[in-house]
Amino acid sequence: MRVRAHAALDAFNTFHVPAQCRYLVTLEQPDDVPVFLDDARFANLPRLILGGGSNVLFVADYPGVVMHIALPGWKWLDDLGDDRLLRVGAGEGWHAVVRRSVESGHGGLENLSLIPGRVGAAPVQNIGAYGVELKDRFESLQAIDLNDGAERMFSRDDCQFAYRHSRFKAEPGRWLIASVVLRLPKRWEPRLDYPGVEAVLAGKAATPARVSDAIVAIRREKLPDPADIGNAGSFFKNPIVSAKRHDELKACCPDMPGFILADGRVKLSAAWLIERCGLRGLRDGDAGVYPGHALVLVNHGRASGADLWRLATRVRATVAERFEVLLEPEPLIVPNAMPSQMSSHGHR
Fold first, then answer.
1. Helix, strand, coil shares of the chain as percentages rounded to 5?
2. Are the C-beta atoms of 332 and 55 separated by less than 8 Å?
3. Which three-class secondary structure state does DSSP give residue 33?
4. 245 Rama sector, left if φ>0, alpha if ψ -120 to 50, beta otherwise
């Protein structure tokens, strides 16, 4: 366990905004957790669990302990019927895990390529992209209860997965995810039904690696690289409304896209709502809405977290005024800029 007092967090968030924490604790092996819990320095301080920092916006300094998760691990387990099981440490980079699996010929994760962050973030957010969610490839995970240090195994049902949501998001600060077991199908079938994926393959036979390459190409064309311009990917969740409300909105805006869910509700496009309000490319100082994709907020250089949150609030208010739909931020806003769980493994 490595401990730094009054540590700068600029390099620990993909928005690259300046912030500090009281303590930064890096956990590199599961045995570090009980040592952390027994350390009197941290006993009465708030805790923030952080992985890659790609799903968090620091709007001010954090007054407590940032637990940086760096738990490694990669192991193929015994096969389970028609599936292969892969256990990975929560501190592994998500995209690196995807690439390592598809390059070895194991399909199943390719549609989730280039999602930033660490493996531990994947179940917290139930990450998803291009027609696949983490829950579709999930078997179990091992977590540590930070209330008492007890270890627990969670099944898929235990995790209570929903759209960009899970039990871990609903119980903030309680569970430290140590490892995740993924279920990959032996009889792989590509998911190419998402618009644009098949076209990028250009008639080539689909393999897990080629589909991953296609997803990477699409994402790089649409989304900015955090190494080049600070961002956390999609800043707002796609809002879900009732079928009745969707019909009302369609009456006013016939071209409004919507995806009908299994329960009859409709998922709207947050990017479409923002763009229709004329906000794509909006800039307030160095805080901006990315010109290439209305769902992405970016730091053009020297924006603070407070600057970006002020812009996000303006976007939310504009969309709410025009469509009476409230956009919910996808990243965790720290500290306490809005009611939210205080735990992030940096997904997203």
1. 30, 30, 45
2. yes
3. helix
4. alpha
Four-CA torsion 1, 33, 67, 50, nearest 10 degrees:
120
pLDDT digits (tens, 9 = 90+) for 228-256: 999 999 999 999 999 999 999 999 999 99
Q: Pick the closest to residue 56 from 149, 166, 169 (CA basis).
A: 169
For 46, counting Cβ atoms within 10 Å of its Cβ (0-12 exposed, 13-18 middle, 19+ buried), the class is middle
Smallest CA-to-CA distance from 327 within 217, 258, 237, 202 is with 237
124/170 Cα distance (integer angstroms): 9
Q: Which residue is catalytic, options 316, 330, 343, 344?
A: 330
Q: What is the DSSP letter of 15?
A: T
118 contacts 346 by C-beta, under 8 angstroms? yes
Q: Quick one: pLDDT at residue 238?
A: 94
| Catalytic hit among 234, 304, 343, 344 | 234
> Which stretches of the chain drop beneath a pLDDT of 70?
336-348
Q: Is 330 among the residues known to form the active site?
A: yes
Model confidence pLDDT, tens digit, residues 132-166: 999 999 999 999 999 999 999 999 999 999 988 99
Residue 298, beta-bridge partner list:
231, 288
Q: State whether residue 141 is helix, strand or coil.
A: strand
Instruction: Write down all domains in the chain, each with its CATH number in brackets.
Output: 2-69 (3.30.43.10), 74-221 (3.30.465.10), 224-327 (3.90.78.10)
By the 10 Å C-beta count (0-12 exposed, 13-18 middle, 19+ buried), 166 is classed as buried
CB 223 within 8 A of CB 148: no
104 CB-side CA count, 13 A: 14
* Residue from 47, 137, 164, 316 carrying the catalytic annotation: 164
Q: Which of helix, strand or coil describes residue 145? A: strand
CA distance linking residue 158 with residue 163, whole number of Å: 15
Find the distance separating the first CA and the last CA of the chain, reported in whole Å.
25
Tell me, yes or no, if the pTM score tops 0.70: yes
